[in-house]
């Protein structure tokens, strides 16, 4: 089963995405902002990351840059 990390600062949107993906058979993990997403991605090694671009603390582009390093 593929593991997907959903990174978004909107908790209700994260929940909708999580429920949709879980109903399709995916293992879903969540993060509330870019910094948490980077930490979670390095610890959990997801197969796919769905990341919002506009977030507090660290935006999606900052998270992508940090993960590439």
Specify the oligomeric state.
single chain
- Backbone shape: globular
User: Widest sheet: strand order?
Assistant: 2-1-3
User: Percent of residues in beta strands?
Assistant: 15-25%
Largest sheet: 3 strands, parallel
Poorly predicted segments: none
Average pLDDT score: 95
Structure explained in plain terms:
This protein is an alpha/beta fold and 69 residues long. Helix content is 48%, strand content 20%. The chain has helices at residues 11-23, 34-44, 60-68, and strands at residues 3-7, 27-31, 48-51. Strands 2-1-3 form a three-stranded parallel β-sheet. Helix 1 links the parallel strand 1 and strand 2 (27-31). Helix 2 (34-44) packs parallel to helix 3. The termini are far apart.
List the helices and strands and how they pair.
Blueprint (H helix, E strand, L loop, with lengths): L2 E5 L3 H13 L3 E5 L2 H11 L3 E4 L8 H9 L1
Parallel strand pairs: 1-2, 1-3
Helix pairs in contact: 2-3
